[in-house]
Amino acid sequence: MNWRSEAGRIYAFANRNVLMAGRNVFFVFELVFWPSVGVLSIGLMTRFLALDPEMTAFLLVGTMALSTVQVCQLDVSYAVLFDVWSKSVKHQFLAPVGIRHLALGSWLVGIARGLTVFALQAGLSRWAFGFDFFHAGAPALAAFLLGCFLTSLIVGLLVSALVVLFGTRAEVSAWATVNLVMVFCGIYYPVSILPPSVAVLASLFPLTYVLDAFRAHFGFASAFPHPLLTGFVLSAVYLGLARWALARAVIRCRRTGALLKMSE
Amino acid sequence: MLAVEVRDLSKTFRSGWFPRRLTRALRGVSLAIPRGAIWGLLGPNGAGKTTLLSILATLLLPDAGRVTVLGHDVVREAGAVRSRLNMASGNSNFIWSLRPPEILAFYARLYGLYGRALARKVDDLLALAELEPHRKVPYHELSTGLKQRLALAKSLVNDPELLFLDEPTLGLDPDVSMRMRAQIKALREERGTTILLTTHYMREAEELCDEIAFIKSGQIPARGTADALKRQIGIGDVIALRLDPPSCNRLADLPGVLECTSQDGRMECIVDSADKRLPEILRWLHEQGVVVRDVDVHEPDLEEVFVELAK
Ligand SMILES: Nc1ncnc2c1ncn2[C@@H]1O[C@H](COP(=O)(O)OP(=O)(O)O)[C@@H](O)[C@H]1O
Ligand SMILES: [Mg+2]
């Protein structure tokens, strides 16, 4: 295998996402507007409720995780969505490319965008609410961000699988799945307050553990024995499953002819 | 050496939940295409042309039958053939806001090109498709003809050994489609590319293809060179004549005249080629002292061919 060809295939998807982002007016909203609105409104709410600095940290960490996951996940989903919207899906699957190229290329752009959103939100929360994100230290912050980006990759691949299976009818999942994350991963509350049956569900999401581990640096006792390790192992398992789901979806499309239907 | 070998291929589409509709798009198709050939698949809308091409190009999985492309089984070894073939269709789409060089570079990268070879390939293809003046125009603002040329250019990014063209001249102006046909011919001449194209224009198949297969309702009832097919089916151009005296049976004996009938005071001669035979027939009639009051030439359309084939 020629590694430059491999890298070129990954770069093709990354480059395309960058080109498209540059031509999309909503890009500014995704990257600047919504994240700013999110962090400012939650921050102001903590002021209104007169929360102490720990509680403020708890909510802001949740908000920033949510925004970062969302913006990075969108980029991964775009790898398939752009083609479905333009009805040009077949050319991509006619070429000798694998899911790894599509996923990695778009994920890299997603990470870049996620980092931008994160930096913006971190700056805003420091300036407006005096919250120091870097208090936890660089390794903890890196693990937190990696955890968020892995969740984005998993969600992005699952959204892509749905879009390949159901076409534009499933595109809403690109914006809706994040709400699932919000309910189950303890974005605005600790998962321990969920009813036991729902808490079981929460324990299936890797982001739950990633958030738990990061909040431990802001004075919240960890609810799990090895949160980071559990989070990353779960992420790896789900990543494998999501990749498999997308591969199966593509094969199914090749059998039913949906790949052609989505191209005319 | 065969580029494509298909045996007893069938494909049924299932759509809808209730009622569940079955479309038998291909029913036992067999064919063999030698390397270096231009092969035509000629048939009306819905005949199964796109379905067949898509299976050969690995975009669609067959239900039954064996399909070998460039020596590889198209289902089990799809990965091995993908880098060696490509496809363009008359109704291709690309991402709307991307520009021609960006689209070509994207797909060239997917086929493993990088660096200087990539840049050169994109430039070459832009020149070939005469898209250089439109480098900065987003895809959705290109004219139909330019879109089609871009689709053809995209299908050449990997210098395919085997090229599938699905209705490459669909919706093009006559002069543009003529240029497109010239380009297709040049591909085979200059690069030795094996080409399988579909069309529902009989003239196009005749002009381009070494061999033609008629496809209808998912079956191939006839195949061969254009001339052989016409002879086999007994169909050609129709020359309708109003003569004085009204009937002249000896017309049927002239060279190139396949059939001659007389009705409502009109003679209808089916000839292999009207361009060639009309002057000869008129000269002969003149020599016989027959007055020609009216001449009408009409080229058979595909429906007539299929009516003939169905008999
Ligand atoms: N993806 C699909 N799903 C369901 N039916 C299909 C699909 N693609 C084609 N068909 C049906 O299969 C038949 C053959 O179609 P096609 O191969 O596109 O014909 P052609 O290209 O010769 O016009 C048609 O009846 C068409 O409606
Ligand atoms: Mg078709």
End-to-end Cα distance of chain A: 34 Å
Q: Largest contact between protein chains?
A: A-B, 36 and 36 residues
* Percent helix of chain B: 25-40%
The third-level CATH topology of the largest domain in chain B is: Rossmann fold
The number of helices of chain A is 11
CATH class type of the largest domain in chain B: Alpha Beta
- Cα radius of gyration of chain B in angstroms: 23 Å
Query: How does the helix and strand content of chain A classify structurally?
Result: mainly alpha
Q: Can you tell me the CATH superfamily of the largest domain in chain B? A: P-loop containing nucleotide triphosphate hydrolases
Q: Estimate percent helicity of chain A.
A: over 70%
Number of domains of chain A: 1
Please describe the topology of this protein.
The complex is a heterodimer of chains A (264) and B (311).
Chain A lengths: L2 H20 L3 H23 L4 H34 L2 H6 L4 H31 L8 H29 L6 H12 L11 H7 L3 H10 L11 H30 L1 H4 L3
Helix pairs in contact in A: 1-5, 2-3, 2-5, 3-5, 3-6, 3-7, 5-6, 6-7, 6-9, 6-10, 9-10
Chain B lengths: L1 E14 L5 E14 L3 E5 L6 H8 L7 E6 L2 E2 L4 H5 L2 E5 L10 H11 L4 H14 L15 H11 L7 E5 L7 H18 L2 E6 L2 H7 L2 E6 L2 E6 L1 H8 L3 E8 L12 E7 L2 E6 L2 H14 L3 E8 L3 H9 L1
Parallel strand pairs in B: 3-8, 3-9, 6-7, 7-8
Antiparallel strand pairs in B: 1-2, 1-4, 4-5, 9-10, 11-13, 11-14, 12-13
Helix pairs in contact in B: 3-4
The complex binds adenosine-5'-diphosphate (ADP) and magnesium ion (MG).
Adenosine-5'-diphosphate (ADP) sits at the interface of chains B and A.
